[in-house]
Design a protein that fits this description.
Layout lengths: L2 H15 L22 H5 L19 E4 L5 H10 L5 E5 L2 H17 L8 E5 L12 E7 L7 H14 E13 L6 H4 L2 H5 L8 H10 L4 E13 L11 E11 L9 E3 L3 E4 L5 E3 L5 E3 L4 E2 L2 H7 L5 E3 L13
Parallel strand pairs: 1-2, 1-4, 2-3, 4-5, 6-8
Antiparallel strand pairs: 5-7, 6-7, 9-12, 9-13, 10-11
Helix pairs in contact: 1-4
This protein binds S-adenosylmethionine.
S-adenosylmethionine binds next to helix 1, helix 3 and strand 2.
């Protein structure tokens, strides 16, 4: 194992043994769902940088793989939707973290009559070699782990996610991103990397890496400020950088007509004389009705004088035409 991966495991072994609410910086409110009571220890051990759970996406029949269990907060939230033994499979190589998550699931069962600890199967395993069969899960999730990987390991982790996902399934993911490439000396800081600060990609690279892994559709759900890192705190930085956190859902589906379809919240609205604008690609825009479109389709449609195309909001919500 590379040294830096060992550092990552060491940091999270420590974070399991001594919960550190400041380790990651998520300010995302947790889901308040009927009859869901989150144990306070899971909130203290919220080491994510956004949310990968969205009730709109999830069905009881889903089998959900969660990579990097942390204190178990999101695995519990996913189990809320599946509610059966093994409906959620959580993988983590750090024994102390797995032990802590399992203890937290026992506490969750005490607080939530609908939940049983076996609803989340916790496995000893690594993102780089998932202990899960190919094409066996409909949803895969990771929160604030993949940003710690360097290029080769990131490619390998994404290839593993692709392998285990069924066709039509999706990968829900959240990580910090940086507005500009970070200085090499900061990127080499292994502790800052393990703490989800110095391994960040730019937004464009983050999306391109998902596309290169083979995802045919990528929805950008959110971009929010994550953390201001300064040279005072990290002398390897030459200037302060405001990191953002991104929430993305990537689908294991074929590319669209314009290639991989990246949805960043853009809409096309037809305002012409006909009832509908239609073209050979199967696109149909009913007059006056906003339709979510990919960035590539938005660029193509913007050339029509009677179609209004809105800018990226980074709040894509699924659906859309192309
Ligand atoms: C930043 S924490 C995120 C925890 C959780 N996803 C959350 O949102 O609270 C990273 C997690 O990944 C685990 N981890 C570290 N290296 C890993 C690897 N190579 N494969 C899978 N999980 C790993 C850590 O033990 C820790 O539980």
């Amino acid at each position: 194992m590379s040294n830096y991966l060992q550092t990552v495991e060491d940091v999270y072994e420590q974070a399991a043994n001594a919960p550190d609410a400041n380790l990651c910086c998520t300010q995302s409110p947790v889901w308040n769902l009927p009859d869901l009571r989150v144990p306070p220890i899971m909130l203290q051990m919220n080491y994510g940088c956004g949310s990968t759970v969205n009730p709109r996406d999830l069905r009881p029949e889903d089998t959900i793989l969660y990579v990097g269990v942390g204190g178990g907060l999101e695995a519990l939230q996913f189990a809320y939707f599946t509610r059966r033994p093994g409906g959620v499979i959580a993988v983590d190589p750090v024994a102390a973290m797995r032990g802590k998550a399992q203890a937290n699931f026992i506490e969750a069962a005490r607080l939530n009559p609908w939940f049983r600890p076996e609803f989340v199967r916790v496995l000893d395993g690594n993102a780089l070699k998932l202990p899960v069969e190919s094409n066996s899960v409909s949803v895969a999730a990771q929160n604030c782990l993949f940003n710690v990987f360097k290029e080769n390991e990131l490619e390998q982790a994404l290839a593993e996610v692709m392998r285990v996902l069924r066709i039509g399934g999706f990968f829900t993911t959240s990580d910090p991103i940086t507005p500009t490439a970070l200085p090499e000396a900061f990127r080499a800081d292994e502790i800052a990397r393990a703490r989800c600060l110095s391994g960040c990609q730019t937004f464009d690279d983050y999306v391109a890496t998902l596309v290169n892994a083979g995802f045919g559709r990528v929805d950008v759900r959110a971009r929010i400020p994550y953390r201001l890192v300064t040279p005072g705190e990290y002398p390897n930085l030459t200037q302060a950088v405001l990191l953002e956190s991104v929430e993305v859902v990537a689908y294991k589906v074929p590319d669209g007509l314009d290639g991989p379809a990246i949805f960043t919240g853009r809409h096309a609205i037809y305002g012409g004389a006909a009832a509908t604008h239609a073209d050979d690609s199967g696109l149909a825009l009913p007059r006056g009705i906003p339709v979510a479109v990919s960035d590539a389709a938005a660029a193509r449609l913007a050339r029509h004088a009677d179609i209004v195309v809105t800018p990226s909001t980074f709040h894509a919500r699924g659906a859309g035409c192309c």
